[in-house]
Design brief:
By secondary structure, the protein is of the alpha/beta class. The chain has one domain: Rossmann fold (3-Layer(aba) Sandwich), CATH 3.40.50.300. Helices cover about 35% and strands about 20% of the residues. Helix 2 links the parallel strand 2 and strand 3. The longest helix has 19 residues.
Length: about 170
């Protein structure tokens, strides 16, 4: 089996989760099983519906509150959900069931103090050589970036949210 790598999709721009799901779709096309563990996302989205149509090649699990976690918000409930997501992440990184593991918004969770960057480093270090590990979220620190094999930064240049457009089903939701 090929060697696996650590990918990071970070930055303030849109597209981190979308890029990760694109990789999951490509993996499914090659017959590789993928699990997506979503940190701080409790709301159902179109990605989950699409993954369900692929015969079990992409599994999506979301852990989080219905509302967004923002700096300054109380973190107790977010921390409880993130602890479950973190334990599940450890389990799937260690087992052989999934060739690709995507930890969506795990970096944001660390940036907001819901989990620690040490937790992310632990996951990177425990990754078996053949497993692909994808980490998404805003605020990747230099140490996490140095441990990755591929880092892409999404940069916000312009977004229609600034014109008052809400998330649209199938496009952002």
């Amino acid at each position: 089996m090929d060697r696996g790598y650590v990918h990071i999709y970070t930055g303030e721009g849109k597209g981190k989760t979308t890029a990760a799901f694109g990789l999951a779709l490509r993996a499914a096309g090659a017959g590789l099983r993928t699990v997506v563990i979503q940190f701080m996302k409790g709301k159902r989205s179109s990605e989950l519906d699409a993954a369900g149509m692929l015969g079990g090649l992409i599994s999506v699990e979301h852990y989080g509150c219905e509302g967004l976690c923002r700096p300054g918000d109380p973190l107790d409930e977010h921390i409880r959900h993130a602890a479950k997501a973190l334990q599940r992440s450890r389990d799937v990184v260690a087992d052989g069931k999934f060739r690709v593991v995507i930890l969506d918004e795990v970096i944001t969770a660390a940036s907001l103090g819901v989990i620690s960057f040490e937790d992310i480093k632990e996951l990177i270090h425990m990754k078996p050589p053949e497993k692909e590990l994808v980490l998404t979220g805003r605020g990747a620190d230099d140490e996490i970036i140095s441990l990755a094999d591929l880092v892409t930064e999404m940069k916000m240049i312009k977004h229609y949210f600034g014109m008052g457009v809400n998330a649209r089903r199938g496009i952002e939701d």
